[in-house]
């Protein structure tokens, strides 16, 4: 009798294991809409790096260096910087727009692999911008900002984005909105926030190209040094 009871209990336990373990494994395999610690750290590092990279390239420039153009079709350092600022605003607006939208039940199917694609494509600019997309009019440098204006505006948007990242919830991948370029199509909020600093890095490389031009103006000697 005792053996029969033990056998019955064993069968019941085995049945329950077979019933619930596959369900548990399925839940474990479901993609999480939450940022991992590594992804959060990557965002912080990328935003800080892009800030330091841009400021390192534009600090201490003369007006001649700021406005120098390799030719009529190429942007100056100042125009590149204005484009960066306008782009950061637009990209951030899309991240916020995505976050304000209801959770997307199809987020994983729509955005799978997009972060890796963004990491691979966005910061890697071909020399001379060959093969790049034409910037939409709203983010083109149309106001010809001076260096003070550009630095002020860059700090404003970059600080706003940095504060947002620090205080946002971790569940952001299931909030999506469409990119205007079909190659990207649906992006989630994490994709947009990752896109932003990598796009800045991309155009920092454009600034480096301008500054490497043989005709790029040399920095004026300090007044004290010139008087010697």
Shape: elongated
Largest sheet: 2 strands, antiparallel
CATH topology: Four Helix Bundle (Hemerythrin (Met), subunit A)
How many domains make up the 3D coordinates?
Answer: 1
Q: Structural class of the secondary elements?
A: mainly alpha
CATH architecture: Up-down Bundle
Distance between the termini: 110 Å
- As laid out across the biggest beta sheet, the strand order is 1-2
User: Which superfamily, in CATH terms, is the homologous superfamily?
Assistant: dinb family like domain
Note the total helix count. 9
Highest-level CATH class: Mainly Alpha
Outline:
This protein is mainly alpha-helical and 228 residues long. It has helices at 2-29, 37-58, 63-67, 77-100, 107-111, 114-121, 147-167, 189-211, 223-227, and strands spanning 176-178, 186-188.
Description:
- The protein has a single domain, classed as Up-down Bundle (Four Helix Bundle (Hemerythrin (Met), subunit A)), CATH 1.20.120.
- It contains 9 helices and 2 strands.
- The chain has helices spanning 2-29, 37-58, 63-67, 77-100, 107-111, 114-121, 147-167, 189-211, 223-227, and strands at 176-178, 186-188.
- Strand 1 (176-178) and strand 2 form a beta hairpin.
- The model is unreliable at 1-28 and 223-228 (pLDDT under 50).
Strand-helix topology:
Layout: H1 2-29, H2 37-58, H3 63-67, H4 77-100, H5 107-111, H6 114-121, H7 147-167, E1 176-178, E2 186-188, H8 189-211, H9 223-227
Antiparallel strand pairs: 1-2
Helix pairs in contact: 2-7, 2-8, 4-7, 4-8, 6-8
């Amino acid at each position: 009798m005792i053996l029969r009871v033990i056998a019955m209990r064993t069968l019941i336990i085995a049945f329950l294991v077979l019933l619930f373990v596959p369900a548990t494994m399925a839940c474990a395999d479901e993609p999480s809409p939450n940022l991992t610690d590594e992804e959060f750290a990557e965002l912080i590092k990328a935003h800080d790096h892009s800030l330091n990279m841009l400021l390192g390239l534009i600090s201490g420039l003369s007006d001649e260096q700021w406005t120098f153009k390799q030719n009529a079709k190429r942007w100056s350092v100042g125009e590149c910087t204005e484009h960066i600022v306008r782009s950061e605003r637009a990209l951030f607006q899309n991240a916020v727009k995505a976050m304000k939208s209801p959770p997307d039940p199809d987020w994983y199917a729509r955005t799978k692999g997009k972060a890796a694609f963004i990491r691979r494509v966005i910061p890697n600019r071909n020399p001379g911008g060959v093969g790049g997309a034409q910037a939409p009019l709203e983010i083109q440098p149309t106001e010809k900002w001076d260096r003070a204006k550009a630095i002020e505006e860059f700090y404003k948007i970059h600080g706003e984005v940095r504060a947002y990242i620090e205080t946002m919830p971790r569940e952001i991948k299931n909030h999506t909105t469409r990119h205007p370029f079909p190659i990207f199509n649906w992006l989630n909020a994490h994709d947009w926030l990752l896109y932003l600093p990598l796009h800045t890095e991309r155009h920092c490389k454009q600034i480096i190209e301008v500054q490497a031009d043989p005709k790029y103006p040399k920095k004026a000697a300090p007044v004290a040094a010139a008087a010697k």
